[in-house]
Amino acid sequence: MPTPILELQDVSVDFDGFFALTDLSLSLQPGELRSIIGPNGAGKTTFLDVITGKVKPTKGAVSLRGESILGLSEQKISRLGVGRKFQTPRVFNNLSVVRNLEFAAAPNKTPFHLMFETLTSSVKDEVYRIMDYVGLAPYAKVEAGSLSHGQKQWLAISMLVAQAPDVILLDEPVAGLTDDETARTAELIKSLAGDHTVVVIEHDMEFIRDLGAPVTVLHQGQLLTQGMMEEVKADPRVIEVYLGQSDDH
Q: Partner of 85 at 20 to 30 A CA spacing, among 54, 75, 114, 197?
């Protein structure tokens, strides 16, 4: 069996007596698309924080391509190929769409380099390829602050893709989107899998179903069950956990 691109083994996170994660083990293969669901307080955000180095586990192991990344800084883990998009799109509102993507794709991201260094033609070509791919090419010269919420989400995802990460972590990518934007986002995410390992955390169950990917259910910091959406929905434990959690449906 190939080495997982990302693996957590018996990971626990103790916040002064409160266990946000307890003995969580999970592995992802290169190019895999995986959905992570669970009610509020299930440990989903802490799961991402552990992978990106924002939170250090109390115990357990985290590896990328078979090598431990425990103790590494968020910046180092990012440079190793792990990209994260937060629920609120992090874009530069005063810069155009193309400048946002050029910033993301630039090898050197200091203001000096961005002002005085010229990007290579291959980097510029990649920026325009990504814009065209996500449907933002007509807005290349538009300031990001003028985009719709859905377009900002696509720009934020595009900025991750421009950095060519092996692993893309998406935290609630369709929060606040219209039905049409949600459907388009599902297609975009599915198209990224294969070239990238993509992990999606989301409360929108219809969106998770549309992704058609294996689902991991977290509850109280533990892995409750895994499987395809229809299997997971029929699991009595999942039904019990979500009973009364109408905001998660």
A: 114
Render 134-158 in DSSP notation, one character per residue: HT-GGGTTSBGGGS-HHHHHHHHHH
Task: Give, as one character, the DSSP assignment of residue 196.
Answer: B
- The sheet with strand 67-68 has its strands ordered as 18-28, 6-15, 59-64, 67-68
pLDDT recorded at residue 113: 52
In whole angstroms, how far apart are CA 183 and each of 30, 88, 150, 152, 189? 25, 19, 11, 15, 10
Q: Predicted confidence band at 247 (pLDDT cuts at 50, 70, 90)? A: very low
User: Is 66 within a domain?
Assistant: yes
Structure tokens at 231: 């299997």
What pTM value is reported for the model?
0.89
Please tell me the total number of residues recorded for the chain in this structure.
Answer: 249
Q: Is 142:95 a contact under the CB 8 Å cutoff?
A: no
59-to-24, 41, 85 alpha-carbon distances in Å:
10, 20, 26
The residues with which 68 forms a beta bridge, in sequence order, are: 63
| Domain-embedded: residue 9 | yes
90 and 154, same domain (yes or no): yes
184 within some domain = no
Element (H, E) at 97: helix 97-105
Percentage with pLDDT > 70 across the chain: 92
Enclosing domain of residue 202: 1-81+166-172+195-248
Place of tokens 């955000």: 45
CATH number, residue 71: 3.40.50.300
